[in-house]
């Protein structure tokens, strides 16, 4: 059956507006479309393809497990899930793991756990969840309400209650609304969809202290920042601040859907038998692939290489900005970087995506005014430089078009 981009408009719900090209093949950090045209991938499936496309370890794991055992349901456990959970607990603060299929599901589980912990330990009045404006935690009704972007949660009827928001990195605002009724504070160490904005170390340390003061749980959403993305296995390590619950997905599976919620034994015991579940969560196929990805990501050469690649990108962006003056700031950490556009280019972030595609490069946005890079952690020097060269040409084309428009 021949399908094209036009087929999308014919048969798919219009909640997405995909680009005109249709990718059909990937290898490393290169992707090819239906016409055979090559692109360098700086998007990584939105920080998902942490080892690029068709990495040998991932391919081998898929093939091996596909010949062995796919799914048995959670009436039974399975070896790949147990091995992956063991490795996650050995490499992090966590003692217990819950598997699901996505970041939204991991966050949903974390929020339900926080509420159940508070109810069991402190009673029904301790139910306030505090999150941050411009945060993003998924698209279920609970997680999208906790996310601090009303545009994503409005229009679906009454929202879950006892959820409040304050500005990110504003410790005084958080302190003002916290009380002994607060059951959890949910925060991204680096806000991804909200503009690639890192938390300050003082802020996260202060959040931890306030949670301790009010006996509330600290939940780190590391769906985008985890799995080596920032150069540590999880970003909390950079800050020296340990959460009570951590959520992981995206890069955890290297491209295969999987999510995980990590926590302590003391907190985790409140999701007792029958309180929560997932039909596909922790299935052998996904866990075997995630284990293979984890084994590569968690090595010192890969994690150390993230910082080296970050510096190459930052140096290239500085040269581009010296020439064109389009960024007010380059922020983020590791291979999750955001470039905020100057006021002259506000609302035009997608112009840069279109120009990049024309040059054979895939990039992302993080809002209307921020461009985002999230390439593979193991992108080759050649692919990285080629992508940066193409990005420079894309920037030049947008700037030239913008200048011509001004002259008209």
Automatic annotation (TrEMBL):
Is the keyword Acyltransferase assigned to this protein? no
- GO cellular component labels: cytoplasm
CDD domains cross-referenced by the UniProt entry:
OAT_like
Could you tell me which SUPFAM superfamilies the record lists for this protein? Answer: PLP-dependent transferases (SSF53383)
Q: Which residues bind pyridoxal 5'-phosphate?
A: 103-104, 136, 221-224, 279
Query: Which of this chain's residues are annotated to bind N(2)-acetyl-L-ornithine?
Result: 139, 278
Enumerate the catalysed reactions: N(2)-acetyl-L-ornithine + 2-oxoglutarate = N-acetyl-L-glutamate 5-semialdehyde + L-glutamate
Its main subcellular localisation, reduced to a broad class, is cytoplasm
Pathway it works in: Amino-acid biosynthesis; L-arginine biosynthesis; N(2)-acetyl-L-ornithine from L-glutamate: step 4/4
Q: Required cofactors, per record?
A: pyridoxal 5'-phosphate
What note does UniProt attach to the cofactor annotation?
A: Binds 1 pyridoxal phosphate per subunit.
- Biological process GO annotation list? L-arginine biosynthetic process
**Hey, which family's this protein in?**
Belongs to the class-III pyridoxal-phosphate-dependent aminotransferase family. ArgD subfamily.
Other remarks on record? Answer: May also have succinyldiaminopimelate aminotransferase activity, thus carrying out the corresponding step in lysine biosynthesis.
The protein in question is named: Acetylornithine aminotransferase
Organism of derivation: Saccharobesus litoralis
Give me the gene this protein comes from. Answer: argD
């Amino acid at each position: 059956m021949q399908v094209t981009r036009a087929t999308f408009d014919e048969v798919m719900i219009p909640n997405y507006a995909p680009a005109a090209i249709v990718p059909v093949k990937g290898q490393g950090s290169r992707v090819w479309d239906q016409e055979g045209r090559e692109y360098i991938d700086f998007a990584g499936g939105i920080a998902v393809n942490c080892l690029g496309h068709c990495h040998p370890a991932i391919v081998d794991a898929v093939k091996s497990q596909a010949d062995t055992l796919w799914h048995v349901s959670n009436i039974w456990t399975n070896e790949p899930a147990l091995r992956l959970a063991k490795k996650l607990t050995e490499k992090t603060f966590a003692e217990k793991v819950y598997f699901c299929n996505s970041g939204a599901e991991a966050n949903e589980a974390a929020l339900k756990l926080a509420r159940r912990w508070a109810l069991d330990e402190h009673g029904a009045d301790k139910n306030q969840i505090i999150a941050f404006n411009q945060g993003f935690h998924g698209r279920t009704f609970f997680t999208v309400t906790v996310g601090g972007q009303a545009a994503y949660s409005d229009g679906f009827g009454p929202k879950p209650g006892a959820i409040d928001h304050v500005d990110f990195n504003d410790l005084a605002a958080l302190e003002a609304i916290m009380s002994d009724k607060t059951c959890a504070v949910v925060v991204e160490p680096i806000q991804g969809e909200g503009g690639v904005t890192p938390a300050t170390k003082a802020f996260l340390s202060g959040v931890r202290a306030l949670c301790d003061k009010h006996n509330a749980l600290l939940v780190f959403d590391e769906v985008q920042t985890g799995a080596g993305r920032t150069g540590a296995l999880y970003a909390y390590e950079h800050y020296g601040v340990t959460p009570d619950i951590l959520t992981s997905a995206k890069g955890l599976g290297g491209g295969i859907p999987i999510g995980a919620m990590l926590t302590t034994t003391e907190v985790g015991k409140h999701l007792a038998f029958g309180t929560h579940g997932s039909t596909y969560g922790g299935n052998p196929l996904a866990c075997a692939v995630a284990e293979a990805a984890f084994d590569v990501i968690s090595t010192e050469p890969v994690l150390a290489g993230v910082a080296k690649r970050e510096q190459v990108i930052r140096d290239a962006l500085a040269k581009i900005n010296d020439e064109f003056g389009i960024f007010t700031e380059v922020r983020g950490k590791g291979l999750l970087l955001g470039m905020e556009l100057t006021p002259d280019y506000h609302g035009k972030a997608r112009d840069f995506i279109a120009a990049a595609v024309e040059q054979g490069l895939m990039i992302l946005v993080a809002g209307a005014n921020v461009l985002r890079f999230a390439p593979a952690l193991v992108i080759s020097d050649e692919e990285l430089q080629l992508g940066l060269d193409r990005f420079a040409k894309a920037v030049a084309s947008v700037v030239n078009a913008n200048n011509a428009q001004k002259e008209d």
